[in-house]
Amino acid sequence: MKPRLGAVRPVGIPTVRDPRGCLSVIEGGRHIPFQVARVFYMHGMTADRGGHAHPDTEQLVIAAAGSLRLDLTDGLENASHVLDDPARGLYIPPMVFIDIRDLSPGAVCLVLASTHYEPGRVIRTLAAYLEAAAAP
């Protein structure tokens, strides 16, 4: 098993503020270390989400509205990160197990991903993740 949480890091999103409001921009390969292949967002959430890992997908997770907590593990270490500022995201490398918790009412979780979605490539339980992470 190799540590991966050291690669998790906050990412400041370039934001222009003026009397009309804010405009934030994210460019793949410039502001984040990957090209964006997929964008998705979760909203109207009434329960915790996540509970999975992506073996080959890099992600930038942003609380576009409201707040949420990401609980992460690489099988060796655990970390929690509260996201509550749409001008800051969290970079998550491949093979980090993610749980999304403590969603505020009206929270919107925006995710930029480096790969297209393939359901068969998602590790859906912590037990399966720990087994895969321990494999050479």
Describe the secondary structure blueprint for this structure:
Layout: E1 9-12, E2 15-18, E3 21-24, E4 38-42, E5 49-52, E6 59-65, E7 68-73, E8 78-83, E9 88-92, E10 97-101, E11 108-113, H1 126-134
Antiparallel strand pairs: 1-9, 2-3, 4-11, 5-10, 6-9, 6-11, 7-8, 7-10
Molecular structure report:
The chain has one domain (5-134): Sandwich (Jelly Rolls). 7% of the residues lie in helices and 41% in strands. By secondary structure, the chain is mostly beta strands. A 5-stranded antiparallel β-sheet has the order 1-9-6-11-4, with no helix packed on it. The protein has a 4-stranded antiparallel β-sheet with strand order 5-10-7-8, with no helix packed on it. It has a two-stranded antiparallel ribbon with strand order 2-3. The protein has one helix at 126-134; strands spanning 9-12, 15-18, 21-24, 38-42, 49-52, 59-65, 68-73, 78-83, 88-92, 97-101, 108-113. The radius of gyration is 15 Å and the shape is globular. It has 1 helix and 11 strands; from the N terminus they run E-E-E-E-E-E-E-E-E-E-E-H. The termini are close together. The model has no long low-confidence stretch (mean pLDDT 96).
